[in-house]
Amino acid sequence: MAKRLLPLAAMEKIMKRAGAERVAEDAKSALKLIIEDIADDIATDAVKLAMHAGRKTIKPEDIKLAVK
């Protein structure tokens, strides 16, 4: 079983904030997996940007650039 980085309750809150009345468990899990995949990609790119700048510390600017 994969380590849970993001709680399923947070996925439900996101979908309810978007207007959902009810959210199925498998929908929460699907959103969680997709968000974690996207976050992994962004984090990997941010690390590369920080290293390219000669830093070990990831800064907000690295995240913003990685998203673009």
Overview of this protein structure:
- The chain is mainly alpha-helical and about 70 residues long.
- The mean pLDDT is about 95.
- The relative contact order is 0.12.
- The longest helix is centred in the middle third of the chain and has 28 residues, at about 25-50.
- The protein has a domain at about 35-68: Histone, subunit A (Orthogonal Bundle), CATH 1.10.20.
- The chain is elongated.
- It has helices at about 10-15, 25-50, 60-65.
N-to-C terminal Cα separation, in Å?
32 Å
Helix share of residues? Answer: 55-70%
Shape: elongated
Radius of gyration: 15 Å
Provide the structure class. mainly alpha
CATH homologous superfamily name of one domain? Histone, subunit A
Average pLDDT: 95
Strand content: under 5%
Q: Quick summary of this structure?
A:
With 68 residues, the chain is mainly alpha-helical. It has helices at residues 8-17, 25-52, 60-67. It is elongated.
